[in-house]
Amino acid sequence: MARSTKKANGQKARNSGEESNSANRPWPSSVVWSAITMAVLLFVAVAVNVLVGRVIHWEIVTGLGVLGFFFLSIGRRYRTI
User: Fold this and answer.
1) Cα 27-71-68 angle, rounded to 5 deg
2) Vertex 68: Cα angle to 74 and 29 (nearest 5)
3) Which is nearest to 63 in space by CA: 42, 32, 79, 49?
4) Could you give the CA distance from residue 81 to residue 64 in angstroms, rounded to a whole number?
5) How far, in Å, CA of 36 to CA of 20, rounded?
6) pLDDT for the residue numbered 2
7) Cα distance between residue 21 and residue 74, in whole Å
8) Coil, strand or helix: which one is 12?
């Protein structure tokens, strides 16, 4: 978020370099990026879990996958990731 300072006449002054960083990414690219990232992460998690010989609790994997996708999409959209 761009910081601003007040001038003597009450107008706000902004740094010119910070304004270009405040533009948001489009939703479609954020969602696609998040879906690919979560697919790779879940694939690795399942593969490692099977190799180690553990049983996956699919409810937990589903919940964490949905939450991860949701937060990655929002974070990517607003340029926090």
Assistant:
1) 115
2) 45
3) 42
4) 18
5) 27
6) 53
7) 16
8) strand
Contact 73, 26 (CB under 8 A): no
Looking at residue 16, its pLDDT comes to 46
Structure tokens at 76: 């990517």
Between the alpha carbon of residue 66 and those of residues 16, 20, 48, 70, the distances in Å are: 38, 31, 20, 6
For the chain, how big is the Rg over CA atoms in Å? 20
Question: pLDDT tens digits, the chain, 81 residues: what are they?
Answer: 455 555 555 555 444 444 455 689 999 999 999 999 999 998 988 888 888 888 777 788 888 899 999 999 999 999 887
